[in-house]
User: Fold these one by one.
Assistant:
Number 1:
Amino acid sequence: MADIIKEIDTIGDLLATVGVTRFYKQDLPLKYVANTIGVRWQGDSDGEFTQAAYEISRIYQVIYFGNNEVDCINKAKMIRSKLSDYLSKKVKLRGSDDYMTLESFNMSAPFKTDTDGVYAVVGVLNASMLEAYAKPTYTKMNEVITTIIEGGN
């Protein structure tokens, strides 16, 4: 079953080697801190896939907070490179047997935040996963009794 928290954790795992001090997952701080990444769910939609499953399309925001615009541009390149390795591939979710597919990734230009000395660059990551339709459950037969009659008319 699709789980947004596991998906956010997995995206963080994919970006773990880009060299940041901290990850913010879903909640961002009131004051931004340079050399950090935030990953946030931004919404989703469902679509038909097969008679047995439907597709969930999700949008995630990946934000890098840096010291200046050049820092943001350099880190944006690293983030894009890491995520591009997984585009159009199935990624196993942390602590689960489920998978998500990273579809596309787009980034903004760097900009100054409201926090003094902190700039940011924002990426939009589109991902999808399949979810099976709920199937009805039936009570299993516990015992079958048969009677065999010999010779018959």
Note: The beta strands are 22-25, 36-48, 53-66, 90-92, 99-107, 111-112, 119-132.
Number 2:
Amino acid sequence: MGSTGTGNFSDYKKFPRAIKGVTGADDSEDKCALAFSTLIEDVDTCEYYSEKGTLPAVGTEVYIDFKVRLVVKSNDGLIIGYLPTKYNYLRNCILKGFTYTGVVSNASSTPINTVVVDITPTTV
């Protein structure tokens, strides 16, 4: 499982103790329309690193997809890593017609493999 996020079950929608506007996925601001930058998880175990033996280069184009969990994929369809659970609300945004694309803004193998992506939403 992922290692980032708030570390609270409130990252998951419908968590019974989530407080509207403070925790969880319900908020008065339209989060679907916001761009964001984040460190992605589990890059060492995902397809991109396993098949290519290297991290994606800075500037590599990416997009968000849903495969049991929200994933960041390269344009050749390989999973680079997973979004932290605090972005679980994006699944509903995708169902509403939003798409999310972006680029790798940082990739480092020291001290551990890490990849940061900058993501921008668009509506269809």
Note: Strands lie at 36-40, 61-67, 69-74, 79-82, 98-108, 114-123.
Number 3:
Amino acid sequence: MKHIEGYLRVSLFLSEMGKLSGVFSLRHFLVLSLALNVALISRVVYEGENWREEQIRALMADASEKSAHVSMSSSPPPPSPSTPSSMAVTSTEIKDDGERVINLDHGDPTMYERFWQQMGDITTIVISGWQSMSYFSDVKNLCWFLEPEFAKQIIRLHKIVGNAVTDNYYIVVGTGSTQLFQAALYALSPPNASEPMSVVSAAPFYSSYPSVTDFLKSGLYKWAGDANNFNKDGPYIELVTSPNNPDGSIRQPVVNRSGENLVHDFAYYWPQYTPISSPADHDLMLFTVSKATGHAGMRLGWALVKDKEVAKKMTSFIELNTIGVSKDSQQRAAKILQVISDSYEPVGNPKESGPFFHFSHSMMEERWKALRSAVKQSGLFSLPEFPSSFCNFLGQAFGSQPAFAWLKCEGGIEDCGNFLKKHKILTRNGKHFGASPKYVRVSMLDRDESFNLFTKRLSSLHLSQSKDHEEESP
């Protein structure tokens, strides 16, 4: 309406000017008319762009305001139509007939979808058909298939969050952290050793470590089990996942002997999962886009490597394995990291907080409260407790709220995974992590509907169901 009113005012003005034709020539009149129309069009475009920017800022402000409210309150506030959390589904709205299968076995981070949906096309990029055609990204870089803009945004985000040192590190990009893990094993293993290098990790360890390590039956390395029980002489590789998958604990190396080669997996060292107490500074550190921003489908991760020769060998492994990494994925990831960093470094207002990590932290906080409430109501389960510590990035103290729940069945239930499966809840059994089958790993990252249905069903499982399970077991 403002644009129409403006046009009418301009038309009226031009009409009045027409009455002064005796004073102004036709040429003057046409020049003035053109100038006024150009000014009007420019104002329409300017106001349209301002409207778009105001919508984005409003979304960010709403998310930040909600996060601040949650951090100061003992319980989460009710969803508001103006906040990104308005799409949350409360447990009271869910009707559960007990027949729907709830699959929380995989750590698919679909819970982040609604945040990025409400951000609109701010992270959209357009790649023309002629772009990204070459194998090479930067021939002068040690990792020649690393896109310069992606590298720039990785360094920028680490500096903003404060979770990793990047100065004097080489960046190696991979198709997810799994490929980087394989590249690290290859790079750290002597090529002419008399026997394979032992690879260990303290139990409970990530369930994919044994299978990925031994999948190729390499003569360079082999899985050697729980680091707590490792006593073999000679060089070895210890995998240190912190926060740990599956139990969320903060880890340090266990073996601590001569000949050690450490790989630190920091997939979950982000402020939505754990307090950022200090920047990590280790020889070889792995990160992944999937758990940082939720974009698992990009299949993209990166390693920060101190030793140049190790970085070269990792690059060679990826070169032989996949001849580099998708440029399209890197360009898209660069844009997403840029948007997150921009929201924490707005031009002209450096004190304004951006929304993503505040939003995701608040979401994880709400989910852990809901899960602990369900566990308490049931009485059949237990969860680990996490000490509170100060997060330098968020500026507040809180306990870890991991991406996975390490759930233990009590009440005489020996196989927790099988018990939950009978109630159509799929989890990952503790035996896959080198632990007791009384434990299961539960993903906290699924969509709202699935997660809320899970907590509602879990809270309804009581001692009577446990006894029924024992009677049915052989």
Note: The chain has three domains: 2-60, 75-118+354-472, 132-344.
